[in-house]
DUF2786 domain-containing protein
Amino acid sequence: MGKRNREKRAAKKRNRPRQSAAAPDQGFPYGSDGDFWTPPPGLTAELLGNALIEAARAHANGDVTAAACAGELSKLEQRTVGRGAGIALDAVLDRLWQLGWMPADIWEITRRSGDSSASSLLVDMIAENTARHASSTVDDRWMAQVQQLGAEVWWDRGRPHLSQWAERGGVGFEEALRTTITLMAGIMTLPKLARIVPLPGTATRRQAASASGVDQKILARVRALLAKAESTQFPDEAEALSAKAQELMNRHAFERALLDADAQRQQVATSIRLWLDNPYVEAKSSLVAAIANANRCKAVFYAKLGFVALVGEEMDLEITELLAMSLLVQATRAMVAEGSHTMRDGTSRTRSFRRSFLIAYADRIGERLDEAGTRAHDPVEDKRLLPVLAKRSRVVEETFQAMFSNTVQRSTSVTNGAGWHAGRAAADRANLTVERQAVNS
């Protein structure tokens, strides 16, 4: 091409009308040359937020160049881009709340990616999102999760959060934008879940603690004892403590059930989610389900996500969660103590052994908890208690069906006999004990 022709083409390009920016609902704003990653000048924070959402969506769909958007946006006015990032993150979180996710759930998904920067940014944005609502309109359980994550507004809210977050973490603004895109890409395609609590801004805080919940003093004692049980290296000590565990907790639950009946309180069921760590998540879910069943709760395992959803009365759920967390620790420790396993030809059988171990452990724990629950019944009080428990069971079943209407029953096979026998033996030694008088509150 001659010099004269090049000059003519350059002149035409300069005189070409500029393409206007897209509206927020029209997708990513294109530049004047139709370049996906070059934003046109004069964009508002809302449009820049939309640009980041579209980049995150492309990234989630496998576009490896999507993160290049961070480099282009970092060249623009930082305050406006930072506001846009806040708008984008807030919008993504609001959508996930609508889909039934809660703060701890989003954090668990992000934590599993191994990106500590994304987890840190997420916690801040949860704090910002929650701070938009009056505390009286945020459900107690929602607020408890926010507090457990340590989510609090530490930055100057008069300035965009992202710039302050980047300064605090010692990273550049472009890297902060890249983290924003990566974080949103990891959570924006999550599936719908059953909603457990009211959305922030719509809840009515409970005026008083429910009579059906576990007494906090007892919970403190229980946690202290279970921590001791998890740390002991002596199976005989754990076995000596095991006999009264479920029996004592059930007696406490039954006492509260009778109090509720006497006060004519309405029977109510709710739900919680227990997240499980790899490996052997499916086998671990069997243990949680066994504990739930022994405590009058129902369980659903989300294999692709890695958690068990539980439905039950509030106190029964508290007991189930407390026991499950402790027994998962004990089961893992006992499993690892069995060491590795190989066949005579050197083929490793460790994985099948450990999986079978955990399934057998769950099976035997379920039997022990059922036995302890039977011992907890007082024949004198059974005439009053059984109708209460029957009504509660109906409420739990109705709530479960309303939340999880498309569940499928799955069976679990055992492929390693040695692992099965070792798991049942370890379950016999497991500490299930809760002694209320043992630790001062």
Q: What stands out?
A: Residues 216 and 419 are 38 Å apart (CA to CA). The chain has two domains: 23-187, 216-429.
